[in-house]
Amino acid sequence: MTAPLYILRHGETVWNRSGRMQGQRDSPLTALGRVQAARQGALLRRAGVAVPAFVSPLGRARRSAALAGLRATVDPDLSEIAMGAGEGLPRPPEARPGVLWKFACPGAESQDALIARLSRVLARPRPAILITHGVLVIGLRAMARGLPPEAWDTLDDPQGVVFVLDGQGERRLG
User: Fold this and answer.
1) Pairwise CA distance, residues 91 & 15, whole Å
2) Residue 143 pLDDT more than 70?
3) Is 11 marked within a binding site?
4) Average pLDDT of the residues of the chain
5) pTM for the full model?
């Protein structure tokens, strides 16, 4: 059996609520986002999960990890996809998180670079908890399932849940 990987998306931010592309820029957690992050910690504790945790260096993920009660090691590979000049701009209505790389602006991270980062993360030792971002939550889950990037937009990226990837597939806590 494959040791589990627990994947958490950071709590809701001001920019999530207003529909802006965040990428490498930061936005504070909303009151709901703070509740979501604390809930993720409670879900992990209730399930008896006590394994190493790794977090994106971006503030919204680090704050979520702290609110979840996790002492996490910063891992730059868990950063959100860089959206270049599009960061801070409204997200186009047709741009779902699983395909944001299709709407990349000048200076944005390429699909190949993102996939290389995700491959490194998936190759690391397990069990582990990862606190990361929407595009990475989708990409990690898609790659673990063997889905091509064209199918990433079939997956969701809710906040406040814990995805569990193991030898039996994927399930959610929460």
Assistant:
1) 10
2) yes
3) yes
4) 93
5) 0.94
